[in-house]
Specification:
This protein is of the alpha+beta class. It is built from two helices and three strands. The radius of gyration is 13 Å and the shape is globular.
């Protein structure tokens, strides 16, 4: 993973769903999908907070996720 992830390689979207919202997060690198995650949250505010935090620091999210899953 490059030290800096280019903004075009990071995607975070909020989609209305029955009873809440689906948050879709993705990081790609040179056409290869590094990570894709979909989460259901009950409120639009939570969905936007998750998207904003993910966009602010996608590297930390990726590293923390890999670390948590490989412990």
């Amino acid at each position: 993973l490059h030290k800096v992830i280019i903004a075009e390689q990071v995607s975070a979207e909020t989609v209305p769903a029955e009873g809440g919202y689906t948050v879709n997060l993705k990081i790609s690198d040179q056409g290869f999908e590094m990570i894709r995650l979909s989460l259901f949250v009950p409120t639009e505010l939570q969905a936007h907070i998750i998207c904003d935090n993910f966009r602010r620091n996608p590297e930390k999210f990726y590293i923390d996720t890999i670390t948590a899953l490989t412990k």
